[in-house]
Amino acid sequence: MTVRTRIAPSPTGDPHVGTAYVALFNYCFARKSGGQFILRIEDTDMARSNPQSQEAILNSLRWLGLDWDEGPDVGGPHGPYQQSLRGEIYRQHVARLLEEGHAFRCFCTSERLAELRKAQQPAGLRPGYDGRCLGLSQAEVEQLLRDNVPYVIRMKVPEQGVCEMTDLLRGRIEIGWDMVDMQVLLKQDGMPTYHLANVVDDHLMGITHVIRGEEWINSTPKHLLLYDYFGWEKPVFCHLPLLRNPDKSKLSKRKNPTSLVYYQRMGFLPEAMLNYLGLMAWSMPEGEEKLSLAEMVEKFDLAHISLGGPVFDIKKLSWLNGRWVREDLSDEQYAERVQKWALNREYLMPIAALTKQRVSILSDLGPLTAFFFSGELPVKAADFEDKKVPVEVSRKAFARALEEFDALGCWDKQAIGALFKQLCDEFQSKLRDFLRPFYVAITGSPTSTPLFDSMEILGRDLCRARLRRALEVLKGANS
Ligand code: GLU
């Protein structure tokens, strides 16, 4: 058997370090076994998926040095590798489940489902579908179809008993069927849900090992049931422990930067990043910590993966990065890396456009633009003292802006400008005054190159990190 693994990101946001972490393990396992590693885009959630995110994910994985044998960009015999282009395949498969009695049409309205949830919660019941449409007769279904009543298709689930499964790292796991919902497989718009598309594609793409994050364990019974309904051989399942913040909570961008773009912008080396992600769930028997991708492939062994919640600690990552810089790069290579990082045309051009009118001599550039070439800024509480804007207001405004950053679909100066105008109205302040503390937090100075342009260039994650730091700094400050 040829091992075939995959990474199946959903392009709904910034490229996440967790995606790289799972991709790395799939990559190492496939390469070590002489198998293939596939990249599939899971974009069935049309409202949240976007092509920019897809491109950023592919770019970030490539930046790290990972490559794939089949995927939307490189093609392959099992394409298309993008689920939004495979609608017909899913509809055919759902039709088969309907015909064979493993799935049913559900005509319940969203109002009814909301009522149901409302009743289930106080009664301490698990929220889930109650199976009402399972009781419809053939004649009733036909009438509803003739009346063009919208419907979804749900899978049938056993009413009692337990689902037994084997996880490569955890061994046997049992989950009661009463914990498993009658999952929607096909939505009203004819698009599949993740569960259906994922299983159908893993089968059609010949995936032998599903290596993914442990947040999917509770979905696995549905997936196993679908394999049984279709009569397909099941892949091996392996759920990796989730990355955690230093306080052991699930790694989240509220506490730690999670976007690979942030790490790239900060100047982490891809080899250090991959190396660190490898150390997250896997300790080498000899205790060595600095490993190249080729060494990780060579030494890869699923038996070395430990289940303890791995802590993603930026300090440790920085330490490892320092070792890679000092021990592996010649002066020339180091200079090349710096150029590639931020002294390149792509990064410099928008900065040039922004600064040309503001310098007399070229050396004015250094102090004016240092913040474009820095990570987090060394701001202090005193930097935020402002006659017109009390510290308490800045603190609240930073917190509100952080909340809104994520909702901003597109990170460009127009969108950023519109957001700040909206926040400024909310705080009933004058834009000029309102923006001053943001200038300090983001650029390190109350006067600088225009804020919205600068924020676009810096990117969402670095801006988020700087605002978060400003908030930390102001935590103990008097208003
Ligand atoms: N699209 C899912 C995700 O974004 C894939 C989960 C899986 O690997 O099955 O994580």
Average of per-residue pLDDT values: 94
The number of helical elements comes to 19
State the name of the first-level CATH class of the largest domain.
Alpha Beta
Oligomer: single chain
Number of strands: 9
List bound small molecules.
glutamic acid
Structural classification: mainly alpha
Query: How many domain units?
Result: 3
CATH superfamily heading of the largest domain: HUPs
How does CATH name the architecture of the largest domain? 3-Layer(aba) Sandwich
| Weakly predicted, low-confidence segments | none
From the spread of the alpha carbons, the general shape counts as: globular
For the largest beta-sheet, the strand count, sense and barrel status come to:
3 strands, antiparallel
Radius of gyration: 26 Å
- End-to-end span in angstroms? 67 Å
Please list the strands of the largest sheet in the order they lie side by side: 3-4-7
Q: What order do the helices and strands follow?
A: EHEHHEHHEEEEHEHEHHHHHHHHHHHH
